[in-house]
Known about the structure:
Blueprint: H1 11-30, H2 33-45, H3 58-79, H4 85-99, H5 111-114, H6 133-144, E1 145-147, E2 153-155, H7 160-169, H8 172-181, H9 193-207, E3 214-215, H10 218-226, E4 229-235, H11 242-251, H12 253-256, H13 278-286, H14 292-313, H15 325-337, H16 346-362, H17 368-386, H18 397-405, H19 416-424, E5 431-438, H20 444-463, H21 469-477, H22 482-494, H23 503-506, E6 520-528, H24 533-539, H25 552-571, H26 575-578, E7 583-585, H27 593-605, E8 612-615, H28 622-635, E9 643-646, H29 654-660, E10 664-668, H30 669-686, H31 693-708, H32 715-722, H33 741-756, H34 758-767, H35 774-780, E11 783-787, H36 795-811, E12 815-818, H37 820-826, H38 837-840, E13 854-856, H39 861-864, H40 868-882, H41 886-903
Parallel strand pairs: 2-3, 4-5, 5-6, 6-7, 8-9, 9-12, 12-13
Antiparallel strand pairs: 1-2, 10-11
Amino acid sequence: MSRNKPEQPSPLANELFEARELVDYAKCVLSNLDLLRAFERLSKSAPDKVDVTKHFTQEQKANLNEAHCTGRFVHMRRLHPSLTDEGAENRIARIVRRINGRTALPDQYPGSLRLGWPQKPQVETDDDLNGNLRELLSCLGEMFLCEGNDGSIRVRTRLLEPWQDLVLAVPPLLITSAWMAQRLHLSDATPSVAELQRAGARLNAWLCDSTLPVDDDPFLDHLCRTEGLDETHLHLNGTTEAEKVWCDALERPEKVVGGLTAKTIKEDIGIKVPIGNGVKRLLQQEDPDLTPQRLMQRVKDAAALKADLLNHATPNVEPTFCEPPVAAYRRAQENCLRRLSAQTPKVVKEAWQLVTLFKGFDENRLDHTAGLRFWHYALLRAQFCRLLIQQSNQKGFDQFQHITLNELREATEKDYAERFRQIERGQQKGVDFLEGRFTPKMPPDDTAKLLGLILRGYLEFLGEGVARPAGVMREAREYRSLSDLLSRVRRLEVGDDQLLDNRREQTNQSHIPRSSRRLRLGLVPHFVKQTHKKEREDFFGGEKLRASCRDAKVRRESDQRARALVALIHRTPGLETLIRGIDAASNERHAGPEVFAPVFRRMRHAGIRRFTYHAGEDFGHIISGIRAIHEAVVFLDFDAGCRIGHGTASGLDPKAWWEAVSGYVVMPTEDRLDDLVFAREMLLSTRTHIDRLPLIEAEIQRLSMKIWNEPRITPNLLAEAWKLRSLDPLAHNVSLEDVDPNRRFEARCFASARQRNSNALNHFLRRHGINASTEELRAAREDVVVSQENDVLRPKVIRTIQNAVLRLLRERSIAIETLPSSNLRISIHQCYNDHHARNWLGLGKHPVGGPVSVVIGSDDPGIFATGLRLEYAHLSRMLHAHVLSPASAKELLHRMCVEAKQYRF
């Protein structure tokens, strides 16, 4: 009698298992604080200047080994808390045997993968600390990387998700440099100039001005080549990749790390209770003992370590001593790069140094002790980079915002040209159009200065695509005005032949052909949502005189920025062609869409016609997020061609959301009341779930009485007052004869509202503190607990409201900007295949009545360790997991690419 054989896992499943296991181990090794501290203790006990060839004593090696083994084990247990000690030990032992070449992969693995594990004679060691970090990096490279048809390094698409998890914690250039070192063959230790040029060109082709390789999907190659991708959601600050900031920190620690000052980590950010400073907590999450001062010292230690390693790895260089760490590093770097061209890209220069180190190990210029010092350097590098990248365990918008506020990127990001190079990616040139977002300043001159920096970087970038870039660089430095700089940019974008009829442009200007750069730039100013803690405390129950309305300070500041921006546009010919639209970004729980309604109206009166708004990304209750999307559309008067940024709440499964928040949320009473009033309006407008209305109205009445204690305030009155929130409360007593036409317009809106429904307007003003008591406003902010069991808004009701909001977007031809990596870090998803875009595209369990237009962006690619092409790749994998055929997935991806062109500003 035959027995059924157990089903064997597929080769791909085995491959993914091996990849994830290797990723876990790499994270344990390069996040090992015990080992880092052990290295630091040895450094403190050693003489000030120590030659890298100095050998560690047996006792020192034993201490390092112990720290390595215990720290690695503890981190593995932290990654997998459900594992037993023996289970974690077995995992570590297995992967160590593979890295040391003691165990070959099974024969069913593809040949390319089997190469990922060095097959070498068994090495008898008590552990794997002894210089074998480079073996781990080589294994990672061989597992994940390959070479594309265009000569660039690619990530195997089937392993993209574990790779993405890896590069959050492990600097990718360490891995790609180990991979390149194995393939870059030089004839001898002192190659000729021609051979060096060929090697530099090959590194340049491999890297594409980025530390992050893209996937190897041929369909995405075709899409990039034929259509070109349109970046519809990218913040210029937050774009620079972490390792580029690290390279800058080694050369200029005072400028880069000096931004992380005591002032940065002093202020408490809690709104209701003290919770400490977010940037300080970010440091402590990485290392409980990490301070700005210790981080500064670690960067300087890394500079000294790298200088020593480079001096011994670079042929024909005599090591120098008794120099400060930064000066020593600069000298060592110059010696290593002395025969490369001055025009060599930054990322290639850094890769060349790392390749030199790996070659130094292979050719025995660096010994076993140097391997330990390289391990110390890699730990420092990895820790610094993690402070610039949102980690997989750092969920939520607040965690993201702490990274934006730590100022480590600020000095590096003054160079805009490097960001444009990174986005275009060298010969790949996948991005056709970029909407770069920036924050306008208060005075027009400050905004003009910022735009000048951006445009000078853009002009330099464009100039690298012409025959004589030196002249363009000179023009970038010598522009006479912002308008003049814009003119020079346009000449490079379209070429002189298309400007022959414009004599003003041609006067006294030499002929410059069109730039061969594909990427073209538009700018989108974004206003910042923020809350002022003291103002809020005074408004909702402080003893001092409260502000004239809610969010008065951010309303006034945003209006001042809008006025300054309008003035700059009016006085700068051509600027209206660069400013493509308006946005409002940052933490949406700090200011709702209603706060920016007057500003968006002012910009519309100034001639801006396209708008987007971050909404539904982070919220207390999922209905709050859906309401924010609806309010952005209605209060800001969005129409065809506008977009919603993120829109996450409209795509999430309500049951999955409840599970993610552990079944209950705590929120202010007034927010809960607003959610119920909104939900009631949506159900009445769609004529669905009418049976739930009595329960919803009863809860509305209860919460309304809790705040206002007036039975006359009915659900209908609350709904009518809610619809008036696009009014500017700062203009409630402005004269209809005001000299400012925008203010007159706001006054007319108030007069019209008063004529239509004075009771609703009076309640609107009361909510803003006019004729409201301190007790009422304090009651509005009292907490209520909403649980999954007691919520009158059941999941099926929430889905109905989601569909109603999505129908509103379809009817108005408004697109949603989806940002997969950002959503994964900030929202509830555990993996890319869970991404909610599938619900918008009609692939979820619950039909949405028709697909909504979806465009793709990368948000803050430096913070999320991604890029636009990678975001397409992540969505592509999600689509393949949820559609019936590969052809359908490709069709959906192509549709999103085309819609991005239709909806770009």
